[in-house]
UniProtKB/TrEMBL annotation:
The keyword S-adenosyl-L-methionine does not apply. Keywords: Manganese, Metal-binding, NAD, Oxidoreductase. This is D-malate dehydrogenase (decarboxylating). Its cofactor is Mg(2+); Mn(2+). Belongs to the isocitrate and isopropylmalate dehydrogenases family. Residues 5-348 form the Isopropylmalate dehydrogenase-like domain. It is an enzyme of class 1 (oxidoreductase).
């Protein structure tokens, strides 16, 4: 039996509610598969912790997380705590300390009723965005000069290292080769005459090692248009930290909204734990009402299982989500249903058991 040790950081707002449903899925898998077990250790870090302790996580938090196989994060952010503090002192700190330089965001339409795009189907909206996750405009470099004076100047420096740029582009080429899909690079070389020209050159340079991979390159403004008008152009996409952050939210919009958006923060070398999360935010306005949609959090469990090398379970979870989306009455209000968060989670577990037996992953 393989035991996976998972650190839970439920976080703020609806985070604890949706993480609880994701844990429910993991426990169901454990009961169905005699070769897998999980341990869970919960950390109460986040904005409430900050208000009480003046920091988003314990002083030795990174060291405490280091021993885990994966981190399962709910959401970060709450009124009264500035966004740049909640983001930089927990989520981005974990990404950077554990060198989680690959962010994986699937842009996959799971049910045709979910997209606002006319005449687009599951076949036409099904691609993967690989976002650089450690530097770029989110490197935290810059300066604030003459603060409060008429000549005040703010500098935000985008950092694009040879190491950081080449490794994310190479990762994307490997994924495209493995999955036999095209690869599209998205940049802005016509305006950003250092960082994005460098990005484009590295993309072309690394591409010489992958003559079997068909490639395309788009400016980010054109790519934003095509995400909406012609999403079928894309199969695997690689882009920088900032552009990836923005583009994947467009991707969420065309596949059903942020309640269905998931993301994985990966350290491919596995020197450190990777982190899995829904990316919908903490939604404090609906916190505690029992109506939060847990599907994105459960989809991130599918990504976690893929990362653990249990791709059959990852695929079964995704197939289960597709099935539940056909049952309108079982969905939460944001998807037109009347179910509570827990009721939806319970129903997903029921379908998961049936789906697992059907696919031969586990006995019924």
């Amino acid at each position: 039996m393989k035991t996976f040790n998972i650190a839970l950081i439920p976080g703020d707002g609806i985070g604890p509610e949706v993480v609880a449903e994701g844990v429910k899925i993991l426990k169901a898998i454990e009961s169905l598969d005699s070769e897998i077990s999980f341990t869970f250790t919960e950390f109460s870090w986040g904005c409430e912790y900050y208000l009480e302790n003046g920091r988003m996580m314990a002083e030795d938090g990174i060291e405490r997380l280091r021993a885990f196989d994966a981190i399962y994060l709910g959401a970060v952010g709450y009124p009264g705590v500035p966004d740049h503090i909640s983001l930089w002192d927990l989520l981005l700190r974990i990404r950077k300390e554990f060198d989680q330089y690959v962010n994986i965001r699937p842009i996959t339409l799971l049910n045709p009723s979910l997209t606002p795009l006319k005449d687009k189907t599951e076949k036409e909206i099904d691609f993967l965005v690989i976002r650089e996750n450690s530097e770029g405009e989110y490197a935290g470099a810059g300066d604030w000069l003459f603060k409060g004076k008429p000549e005040e100047v703010v500098l935000q420096t985008g950092v694009f290292s040879r190491k950081g740029t080449e490794r994310i582009i190479r990762y994307a080429y490997e994924e495209a080769r493995k999955s036999k899909r095209t690869l599209t690079s998205i940049s802005k070389g016509n305006a950003l005459n250092y960082s994005m020209v460098f990005w484009d050159e590295v993309f072309e340079e690394v591409g010489k090692e992958y003559p079997d991979v068909q490639t395309y390159s788009y400016l980010v403004d054109a790519a934003s248009l095509y995400f909406v008008t012609e999403p079928e152009r894309f199969e695997v996409v690689v882009t920088s930290n900032l552009f990836g952050d923005i583009l994947t939210d467009i991707g969420a919009a065309i596949t059903g909204g942020m309640g269905l958006a998931t993301g994985a923060n990966i350290n491919p070398e596995r020197n450190f734990p990777s982190m899995f999360e829904p990316v919908h935010g903490s939604a404090p306005d609906i916190s505690g009402k029992g109506i939060a949609n847990p599907i994105a959090a459960i989809w991130s469990v599918s990504q976690m299982m893929d990362f653990f090398g249990k791709e059959q379970w990852g695929a079964t979870i995704l197939a289960t989500i597709k099935e539940i989306l056909k049952e309108k009455e079982s969905l939460t209000p944001d998807l037109g249903g009347t179910a509570t968060t827990q009721e939806l989670g319970d129903r997903i577990v029921e379908i998961l058991c049936i789906q697992a037996a059907k696919e031969g992953v586990a006995p019924l």
